[in-house]
Amino acid sequence: MLLLPGVTVVIKKDESAGGSEGTVVNHLGFLVQDLKVRIKHWEGLGLKVDEPRPSPTKAFLRFPGDIRVELSEGPTITTPVAHHHIHLFTTEVDAMQEWYVEKFGGRAGERGRFKEVWFPGVRISITPADEKPVGSKGRAVDHIGFEIEGLEAFCKKLEAQGVKFDRPYGEVAAIKSSIAFLTDPWGTYIELTEGFSALR
Questions:
Q1: What's the average model confidence in pLDDT over 11-21?
Q2: What is the pTM of this model?
């Protein structure tokens, strides 16, 4: 696990059907204190900077597994790196925003030209796609996750609203957590947990 402020990145060795670009979970966004210094550091590690060359405040990198990562300069953050957003692509921007607001209790917002859904510690940015992207399951960014207080009741509420679960609510004794999986209507595979944050 990679622990960053407000987010846990879980890395699993497995076969992948491809990178993040072209899927509904197109890329992940992070803030860094000094973009120029970070770019130089990561290029020294052999990471590819996507063309066009980075602007003074934003760049895209290709991480191992062909994971697209956006870096934006956030000089006011108090850590070298902080999580900022998950960027979803869809042909149904308004419907996706409404779904995450209705089902997960997020707050609708905007960032420049992007519609967003805001949650504590993270935001989902949504970009219109010319063609329907493929689902995330089995790709380099397989799924996104939310830590839910009262997960069992939350899952029952979603089921009552017609949401189908890929893996129904259940307890995982080995890690003293509860877990469930579902897929949003656009192919984003989503893990729901309770107690997982205590493992940080």
A1: 93
A2: 0.92
